Amino acid sequence: MTSEGPSPHGWRYPAGSLAFPHRDLLAIGKLERHEILYLLDEAEQWVDLNRRAAKQSEALSGLTIINAFFENSTRTLLSFEIAGKRLGADVVNMHAAQSSVKKGETLIDTAVTLNAMRADAIVIRHGSSGAVELIASKVDCPVLNAGDGTHEHPTQALLDALALRHALDGRGESADDFTGLTVTICGDILHSRVARSNLLCLQALGASVRLCAPPSLMPQGIAEMGAEVFHDFDAALAGCDVVMMLRLQSERMSGQFIPSAAEYHHLYGLTKERLDRAAPDALVMHPGPMNRGVEIDSEVADMLDRSIITRQVEMGVAIRMACLDVLTRSARGVEGWEAAR
Amino acid sequence: MKQVRPLTIVNGRLVLPDRVEQGAIRLVDGMIEAVGDIAPRDGDETVDARGKLIAPGLVDCGVFAVDKPAFHFGGITRAALMPDQSPVLDIASRINFIAKSGKPDLWVHPLAAATQNLEGRELAEIALMRDAGARAIATGRQWIADSGVMLRLLQYAAMLDMAVITHAEDASLVGGAVATAGEMATRLGLPSAPAEAEALAIARDIALGEMAGARLHFRQVTTAAGIELVARAKARGLKVTAGVSPAYFMLSDLAIADFRSFARLSPPLRSEKDRQAVIAGIAEGTIDLVTSSHDPRGAEDKRLPFADAAPGMAGAETLLSTTLTLVRDEVIDMARAFSLMAAEPARLLGLDAGKLEVGLAADIAIVDPDKPWIVEGKSMAASAGNTPFDGQPAQGRVVALYKGGVRIGE
Q1: Is B10 part of any domain?
Q2: Which of A30, A204, B209, B366 is 20 to 30 Å from A95 by CA-CA measure?
Q3: Best A128, A135, A225, A229 residue to mutate vs chain B (most B CBs within 10 Å)
Q4: Which structural domain, as residue segments, surrounds residue A245?
Q5: How far apart are CA A213 and CA B23, in angstroms?
Q6: Tell me: the pLDDT tens digits for A38-59?
Q7: Sorted alphabetically, which keywords does the UniProt record give (chain B) (predicted)?
Q8: What ipTM is given for this predicted complex?
Q9: Can you tell me the mean pLDDT for A295-305?
Q10: Residue B401: inside a domain
Q11: What is the tens place of the pLDDT at every residue in B340-356?
Q12: A252 is in an annotated binding site
């Protein structure tokens, strides 16, 4: 199966580039429900491919993808790199630590430089909210946001949705979207781009979202985004179908936001006993990397029938392949996508 | 350049302190010699205002740069310069230099830094700076966090009878925030601080000001809670005044959507509810004056991710047209608009200017209050075009400007 072939879900969507009429993937907040579903459906073929022994496509053969990471990352960078390579593209990684950014070059100049190298797609992670959008406005090729400050991390939300869809499918609960599902996201909501992207994505797909954090880690005004806000983890868990735990950065655990890791675990750690308050077969998710014993107990993280944490990682590669494929179709002249830009 | 020949501007609508009326004004030796139902005398140069407004030149209390072309475009004949310069205006020689820098066609009134290097710790040589030409004291872009320092500053200022112009944001609550806490900041993932940071600072400074018996001016009062505190202090007879920039009655934090760094201001733009409170505060007289807070910033300061961009906007050119929107919306009348832009700031700074009164400086703007134009950042007179009003239609322009009876731009 190649990306040029008919999509298995093609009947659901407008023809060609109308299914995803964006040059860039900057934020879930800029996408419509059907555009999110389109990316999820497009990713299914890559899930299949990734499970075969020979995992190679030539769809992006001859294209150059630059992963420009201005902030440290291991798993997201690796996931994007593997995704690009499996699609046959030439993938180059640029780490901020090795770049001229450290020498005082402005972000705009860096963007112009990357643009002059004629990449076919640029994947960017940056520590400042809105930085990826700023770079996108200065380059001529598709830009994928791999996380900007505390704003958004759209591919994380998409891979979480795909992992959740597969887990529900595996139980025979397949549905078009997540209507009727209650998802509880618990952790450092204030500083989490994953929480923001997931809130928007899950809501777009019909789920109701509960957010749980101590007040010091809960952003003001998030209730206006349609989330139900909790400070009591037990109450937030009651009857929910999915529990998504967020990583707590160690620098936030030393008194500024919460008194200690131990106290955080006491109030917000996902233990086996706490999980029992959720729906009987509630699923457990975590974007990783985990602080075992802080926000999540090993016993819970490793529950084979409930935890889908490793499946999230697997889906990450497929979703990023789908995004790279879809966003480069215009440049590759795929039929129906020529005029997308 | 000194005025050499008496000048009478006829056939205009005079913007007097309490009303607008048909009339003329006669300017002699750089001063207003007569105003009202008068006629030119033999030998006078005569200018026909063609029915436009004859208004006092604007007095802008709290700009961050001396930007003569922008000030003249906006009808500003006097500007009080914030001490946040490089180097800081914290010694008499710098004050002396700045006080002469714009003459003759723009008078710059330097504001003395309250503390050495604006660090909020040790008092600067305020009396020496006063005698070198400083018209008031300012804390700069920041609040003075140490209440002991602030009290001593206010006591000292009271002794010297100088107003203290303070920035009202509680620094420890604000931290590294670049937006007001709320839905917009949360959606954008920007570091934010609650709007209450302003009220906290105002409440403390009012308490200290009352103890010291000082004149206290809040340069920007932008929240409902802050305005209420100022109103209550005024009702109790305290010597408290408040200013605001047009951005806070024209825009809410919706303007920062898409990370538009031209809308990154200090204090940050507030909620729609606070914007409405600012308009009500102007209508009720709690807010005394408007200031452009003119702060031109080039691409190197603004073409950055929102949180990394410098705060501030180039506001001198839009001060008049944005304030006139309040007249068109019937929030205030024309006389009050020029009280906000000229008479009140002049009073705060102790200047013999800002009103059409005999014996005051002949700083005159002839204004067409209805003239339509488009704000265009790229072609502004200011040294940089960082305006959040870029591309928007505006109404109201200066037709001619006189400083000390001399036409500017001729």
Answers
A1: no
A2: A30
A3: A128
A4: 154-249+256-313
A5: 67
A6: 999 999 999 999 999 999 999 9
A7: Hydrolase, Pyrimidine biosynthesis
A8: 0.90
A9: 96
A10: no
A11: 999 999 999 999 999 99
A12: no
